[in-house]
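Progress against Task 2.4 (sequence-to-structure conversion) is shown through the following example record, which the project officer requested during the mid-term review.
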Amino acid sequence: MEAIRRKKVKELLASEPGTEVLAKGWVRTKRGNKQVKFIALNDGSTINNIQIVASTDIFSEDLIKDITTGASLEVRGKLVESLGSGQAVEIQAEEIKVLGTCDPMRFPLQKKDTSLEYLRSVAHMRLRTNTFGAVLRIRHAMAFAIHKFFNDKGFVYLHTPLITESDAEGAGDMFQVTTLDLTKVPVHNGKVDFSKDFFGKKTSLTVSGQLEGELGATAVGEIYTFGPTFRAENSNTPRHLAEFWMIEPEMAFYDIEDNMELAEEFVKYLVQYALDHCADDLKFLNDKYDDGLLERLQSVLGIAFERVTYTRAVEILEAAVAEGKVQFEYPVHWGTDFQSEHERYLVEKYFGKPVILTDFPKDIKAFYMKQNEDGRTVRGMDVLFPKIGEIIGGSEREASLEKLEQRIDELGMSRKNLEWYIDTRRYGTVPHSGFGLGFERLLLFVTGMANIRDVIPFPRTPKNAEF
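Structure tokens generated for the chain above:
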């Protein structure tokens, strides 16, 4: 038979009938009768399968027996107009080769409606399901869109270190990096002697690339980082991961208003990109898991996000409790850090659209946020989305050397480890701002999935580090 170029399933489904084609992929299902078998073949290029029509007159019983769910096939045949519903074209098989068999008794993805919880227990195989194929393609599209958005705006992509000695958040929940033999840790004056370690000092995996990002912004103007970050927080919740990806732009000469405008434009761009480029996958997820997904994605476009101060938000929440409209698990008053239930009430019940919270109490925010004139609040901002709560956190950064050093001292932080960062305020300081978007939080919103472990291929959570 003449050599034919393989076409992906996505290509085949968009092709005109009447040509000889070559397809390769994995079997989703096989059905039929004694005369003909209908095989649904998928290669990961699209949520949709191509139907293979195989006449039992042509193919042996042994071959048909090897065509089971999960098996991989090479199929040559004619692309013809489909007589059945659900697809415009199908392949009339002329030659089928089983590339890899799949034991139906052992293959863990046999059940048609397998729970997401079960799939997490076979995470090495779950990527082959329709659900995770859709999530992975959307994840890819969003990653590409992030780079395109910033590239088109003239931002510089800055690679910040994964191994660091600085704790950008001041939280202390960091994974330590060491080459020391933990059965014979060197000690000096009763303390671990890190001079014997690889870097000669205590180092950890980064919780954020922000501080290094500020160095880049004060050199080339506007930068963004996009990479993995790590939190050793013992949280087993549907919204937390120990390893996740962050997008962190930092911009010189931006004040808090510029920062809010960029954040709003950014998330709207990403949602629109998903709607434009991931229609089939989004429809599948909408129909299978979240029948309000497409409507919710559309709802954040074409409207201005509500901008509300933290103080006003507290008043709204306190009034809602006093009037009996809502009962929160966590009490709210001025000075408390909002929980997801508070954020979602503001977005979903009170305003009915995304909200940007500003001007937080300085005691609940990081040391680098610019202090307001009142001495009590800082120019932070949180972008709140329906169903998710906080999706972006950022601020105008403190540009004053005196105020920054004073805040570091107030919090009992080590100036020694931050001298390189403080230098940005000593030498040509400028107003500058930035924010962080948790990639997986974004994907929760875009895909409609309920658990953050289902939007990353290999989740890292407490007691879970397989593969």
